[in-house]
Amino acid sequence: MTKLLIKNGTVIDPAGKNGGGRDILIENGKISKIGRVQASGARVIDAKGLLVMPGLIDMHTHLRDPGQPEKETIASGSRAAALGGYTTICCMANTTPPLDDPALIAYVVGKAEKEAVVNVLPIAAVTRGLKGEEIAEMGRCVAAGAVAFSDDGQTIGRSDVMRRAIEYAKQFNKPIIAHCEDTNLSKGGAMNESRLSTEIGLPGIPALAEELIVARDLLLAKKYGRVHIAHVSSAGAVKLVRQAKKDGAPVTCETAPHYFSLTEEAVREYDANAKVNPPLRTEKDRKEIIRGLKDGTIDAIATDHAPHTIEEKKVEFSLAANGLIGLETALALALTKLLPEGLTLKEIVKLMSAAPADILGLTGKGRLAIGADADLIVVDQKAAWIVDPDKFASISRNTPFAGARLKGKVLHTIVSGRLVVKDGKLVN
Amino acid sequence: MNKVKGLKNKDLLGLKDLSVEELQLILKTAVSMKEVISRPIPKVPTLLGKHLVTLFYEPSTRTRTSFNMAAKVLSANITNVALSSSSISKGESLIDTAKNLEVMGVDAIIIRHNMAGAAHLLARQTRACVINAGDGCDEHPTQGLLDIFTMIDKKKTVKGKKVVIVGDIAHSRVAKSNIWGLNKLGANVVVVGPPTLMPDGIEELGVKVSYDLDRELRDADFVNMLRIQRERMDKGFFPSIGEYAKLYGLNAGRLKNARPDLVIMHPGPINRGIEMTSEVADGPNTVILEQVTNGVAVRTALLFLLLSGNN
Known about the structure:
A: Urease, subunit C, domain 1, nine-stranded mixed sheet, 22% strand, B: Rossmann fold, Rossmann fold, 14% strand, transferase (chain B), Aspartate carbamoyltransferase (chain B), amino acid binding (chain B)
């Protein structure tokens, strides 16, 4: 394999020290040298004035494979990821059929080896058929390559099943990723329940629908073992996690870029591209999410990239599918929205790389150190661009950020030492 | 009739979007239209050659008939399309339906739909004028207009008047359109009903919330009784129809403490014995049938304003 030398970049390593003008040498898919490097015969990437950071890790992606290639495939989703600066994505189990069986985990791993341009790590279902009744073969799924367990899209309603799953998963040292939603409170709802839902007449979903199950799962975690709370969207949920961490519960959580970038106001004109579950909430919630990102309550930013066809979105709001795509906008949103809020570059990079790597136990990823995997990206922090969904590599277009002006562009993406995005374009 | 200064938008989606001037223009025009309708031959050629379609995904008698009468007063052609709301979930696309109607040369689509925002979705997809005849729990603007028209007809103005709206506020597009319109015109609106049927943040729309109908009736100028749907009870919003009627129904005893000139309204159809007793429904303070008559006048005015000016 050829040697690659990234010269003169401003290195942002969430685990180490930052500094301008450092070179990184990549050999055999690993980082071999950092500092002032002279390497003959290496392909050189000039990163002067640019940021060099670990490749981003998305611990919450829906790739729709198997089952819904009209929305996304492993090939298309991984290309969207590469363009967005992600070198590793973890795909959720709510496919058709769901990833509740070691053969299906092996299918994803095998297909990713053939078709993906970034690392694709499957997340196995917690329960068979995502039904919330019997736990799936977690051990065999781990052996086949699963990095975590989740029935995402569904809450495990039965507390006894959730308890057993948390206990059983302990032996594999992998987290249960919890989708928290009391469906008795949320059913029929299409947006956050608030003054605005009253105003525009859409059926509401109270924040409590999320918070009640967050509270339950935090209590279960304290007693029985690790839980990672997915897509935290409400102020109340942030506060619950903050308190649980103080109490020593083995919990982590993530939020998604739309929860720190948007509020429910995005659905005022019935824009179904802003329909997502949990729903976009109020400014008070958005502020608390940002506070949680700053004080470490929220460990990670994950996209919850949820591709849907135009046909499923261009309908009456109440009928539209939940979810929005995020791989190609997440980093720019984080830089655009969070730097002005006082988060540092290093904190943002940690939330999007080192933290998910730690939660999932991905050794060698999420850091720029000698011997680490050569998954890294080069970013022009100052470049402004307009979000144009027609230019996405994702098959789907469902983003509420179309037309938004964002700052921060991924120029190069390197996966295991291979350049997969160069100058903002996919290589071959 | 001369061309009047029209409304700002091509559509009427809700009273929320109207300015005070536009509201007053519609109400004023409705006065002349009421006169037209009362003529021996209630017909003017204003909208001759225009094609209207009613596109109803929910059943309706009054509203659809009222729009049909209004269209005929103005000599417009009108076609009624009825779709069951179950066909929506079978993949019947609202947008496709709209595009088909548009290429047939339809000038206006009057839509009723069980989901909020359906009229807005349609309006964005077509050059035709879209009139919202009720979208989910959002708005029913022509009902709001005819209610306000009736109030002004009875008491000259709504400014400074106390209007009590009673019942299922959370699921009522009639309540919403009343609130938007009445607030713009300076009325004091009080909503009364069980707390389970009060939507989040309703006070912030500029109304007072109360659970005590007797107290609110004492100094009310108008009371607008909303139709209660049995399915709300089935979904656990209140325990029984009997208890609902006891707490929030109008009866002769309850009216004893109200002002003698209290005007009692209902968008229909009434559940006699629930929202009000027959004695009240057929009593001297009740204007339910006048509301229906005024509905034709208001809708005629609206069609005139939306369709006669723009070519």
